[in-house]
Amino acid sequence: MEGSRQVLKFGGTSVGSGEGIRRVASIIRHHLRDGEGMFPVIVVSAMSGVTDQLLRIARFACTGDHESWQQELEALKRKHVEAADKAVYRSEVRRTLQHDLQVPFSMLEQDISAVESGLSGPTEEQADDGHASALALYAASTMSAWGERFSVLLVAAAARDLGVQTAPVREEVIVTADLQADRLPAFGTVIGADPLPQETRVNAGRLIHPLIERGIVPVVPGFIGRTTDGCVTTLGRNGSDYSATLIGAALDCAEVTVYTDVDGVLSADPLIVANTRLIPRLTYAEAARLSWFGAKVLHPRTLIPVAHRNIPVRVRNTFRPHMRGTVVGPALTTRSAAAAITVRGQLALITVENSDLFGAPENAGQVFELAARAGAAPVAICSSSGHHLTFVVEEQAADSVAALLQHDMGSWRVSYRRGLAACACIGSGFTADPMSPARAITALARERIPVITQGASEIGIILMVEESESERALRCLHRDLIAPVIPLVRHEVYERAREARQGATL
Ligand code: ADP
Ligand code: ASP
Ligand code: MG
After folding, report:
1. 481 φ, ψ to 5°?
2. For the residues 88-95, what does the mean pLDDT come to?
3. Domain boundaries, the chain
4. CA distance 372 to 374
5. What angle do CA 42, 142, 318 make, to 5 degrees?
């Protein structure tokens, strides 16, 4: 089939229940009928909570806790079987779906058994930390991949139930590099592998083009990939947004839409701030900055595959599909002051000082190389002078970064402060407007929130504060820079949370 294509990606909350999956199916049908000539390719996440469940199963399997993983597996099966019953009405489609779901569930059980037998594999001397970490790495990647594989079956069946010609793609489309062996994860976490765009393009051509040519809507698992020698990988937590744009670029799509549970990219996280505003347009740079500094609505790598090709990314609400959402695209001529405020927590500030009061710029390369070797490239670089450098890393890496710096740079004094958060005020004209940075600092000063350090660029500033103050800081920055008045119409997320609370007390 000739013509342009678009990727529609549905996140975990969108496919979080049987009713949700049916709603997703009707959005797919709508796009197929009225998609402005763009044939849809669907990318789906696991049902919300499922990746966490799978990672718990991986941990139980690695520690030989047979009973716990069995209980978790039963709960996982129940969740999908119940969702299947609600998502699909026609009995023959439902029967086929229930049958299809058995296959990945028994393959998951085989994976669990493989991990359990890996536990008894090596002799006692071999069963050291290295073996345990390798097993944890294998278990986390292999098992966390199953959630998306279950979802493609549910979504494809629900769309078929509504009369859409569709097919689940059962293989991984994204080809990735191997995971680097020096980056072994803690139990219950996954490490993202680096995608290989050229190989992914070839694979997408092989797996997806033939379906599109026959007018069949492909439903592709997001988040997961495979190395060229066949090992299952993932793109890291929340990585299905990234997989959507990788697949969009590989298929030369005209645009990518990320369907989620909010109206688009908002001026702050609606779970923290009540009167957020929808941002209709953002540049790639603004959106990338926002997600880097904590806006979970897009994975920080989402824009990499599409920005250099000017493929727009829309963010829309599955629960309010009539809303136009946010379009992330090339730079605009108009400039905003602060478009959004975000907060990224669990950070530590590292300061490296030279007692000679000289030489910091000359040694900056070594400092950052050592930080990267300790697994912590800086989240932000805040300040420097002739004899000091201050930068921010994720808190969990602070001890090892500081130890390595101290060890390799003997005459330098290394200190760090944990428990911090970065509040980022982002907008393409932010620092061009002399009042905006001043208003941000004043907003925090008025609330008696100390700014520990700060950093600025042409599209915004970051203010480092104590983590315990970060939500209050976010609210007052939002009030003073973006939305001074609390509107009478409350945000729907709050309405839903309030209704859920009322329901729970009835
Ligand atoms: P999905 O399951 O669709 O991938 P996520 O939970 O990953 O959804 O991302 C959507 C969530 O991102 C929203 O529910 C919201 O709480 C959060 N969020 C944080 N910052 C922002 C922001 N600036 N704009 C919109 N949503 C945001
Ligand atoms: N299912 C994966 C996760 O929970 C990927 C995603 O939903 O984006 O991290
Ligand atoms: Mg997400």
Report:
1. -105, -25
2. 97
3. 5-261, 349-481
4. 5
5. 25
Give ion ligand 3 contacts, CB < 5 A.
11, 238
Distance CA 506, CA 49 (A): 26
For residue 222, pLDDT beyond 60: yes
Which superfamily, per CATH, for 349-481? VC0802-like (3.30.2130.10)
Is the pLDDT reported for residue 36 higher than 70?
yes
Please state which of the ranges 183-192, 236-245, 433-442 shows the lowest mean pLDDT.
183-192
Given CATH 3.40.50.2000, say whether it is the number of domain 5-261: no
Q: For residue 331, give the amino acid letter.
A: A
Question: Residue 401 burial (CB < 10 Å; 0-12/13-18/19+)?
Answer: buried
Q: What is the pLDDT of residues 294-307, one digit of tens each?
A: 999 999 999 999 99
Residue whose CA is at the smallest distance from ligand 1 atom 11 = 297
| Parallel/antiparallel/unpaired status of strands 224-227 and 174-176 | parallel
Scanning 256-316, the segments in alpha helix (DSSP H) are 284-292, 304-307
- List ligand 1's pocket residues with C-beta within 6 A: 11-14, 45, 48, 238, 260-262, 265-266, 268-271, 295-297, 340
* Alpha-helical segments (H) within 88-171: 91-120, 129-144, 146-161
- What is the spatial distance between Cα 349 and Cα 419, in angstroms, rounded to a whole number? 9
Task: Provide the β-strand partners of residue 393.
Answer: 348
- Among 71, 29, 354, smallest CA distance to 160 is for 29
Residue 282, beta-bridge partner list: 328
Strand partners, 220: 43
Percent of the chain with pLDDT over 70: 90
Rounded-to-integer distance, Cα 349 and Cα 462, Å: 13
Report which ligand 1 atom has the smallest distance to the Cα of 241.
4
Q: Could you count the other beta carbons within 10 Å of the beta carbon of residue 229? A: 6
Measured at the alpha carbon of residue 407, what is the angle toward residues 405 and 409, in degrees to the nearest 5?
60
- Going from the Cα of 383 to the center of ligand 3, the distance in angstroms, rounded, reads 32
Task: Name the DSSP letter for residue 278.
Answer: B
What values do phi and psi take at 136, rounded to 5? -60, -40
Which pLDDT value is given to residue 505? 39
Q: Which of 477, 491, 490 is nearest to 337 (CA)?
A: 477
The continuous run of DSSP H or E covering 416 comes out as strand 412-426
- Quick one: average pLDDT of 269-290? 95
Is there a contact between 251 and 174 (Cβ–Cβ < 8 Å)?
A: no
- Which atom of ligand 1 lies closest to the CA of 493? 14
pLDDT above 70 for 489: no
> In sequence order, which residues have a C-beta less than 8 Å from that of residue 158 and are 6 or more positions away?
21, 22, 24, 25, 87, 88
Taking 50 as the threshold, does the pLDDT of residue 273 lie above it? yes
Q: pTM for the whole thing?
A: 0.91
- Which residue is closest in CA terms to ligand 2's atom 2? 238
Note the pLDDT tens digit of each residue in 59-85: 999 888 999 999 999 999 999 999 999
Per-residue pLDDT at 490:
53
